[in-house]
Amino acid sequence: MSRTILDDLYDYDLLHMTEIKDMDSSYKATLDRLVKAEAELKKAYPDNDEILDEYQSADIELHNLSNRNEFRKGFKVGAQLVLEMLKPIK
Per-residue confidence at 59, pLDDT binned at 50, 70, 90? Predict the structure, then answer.
């Protein structure tokens, strides 16, 4: 996949917009559930750390790819809305 300005914006924070100061309470609750489930899995299957690590790595990579694609689509939709707003009113 070739890089675009949207990739640079997403990866390198060109506009310094990716810093999140306040975490949504539902996000925090879901993150807490995930951490608890991970701890339970490690406790239940202590000999399978490598499998769990591989699963987590693949899951993170998939989420990163999905987030990038959603960011690009959203940015393009926003730009299309701006272009539509610039058209004369008939």
Answer: very high
DSSP per position, the chain: ----HHHHHHHH-TTS----SS--HHHHHHHHHHHHHHHHHHHH-GGGHHHHHHHHHHHHHHHHHHHHHHHHHHHHHHHHHHHHHTSPP-
**Calpha distance 63→57 (Å, rounded):** 10
CA distance 14 to 18: 9
Quick check: pTM over 0.70?
no
Confidence of residue 27 (pLDDT cuts 50, 70, 90): confident
Residue 13 within a domain: no
Residue 39 lies in a domain: no
The total domain count for the chain is: 1
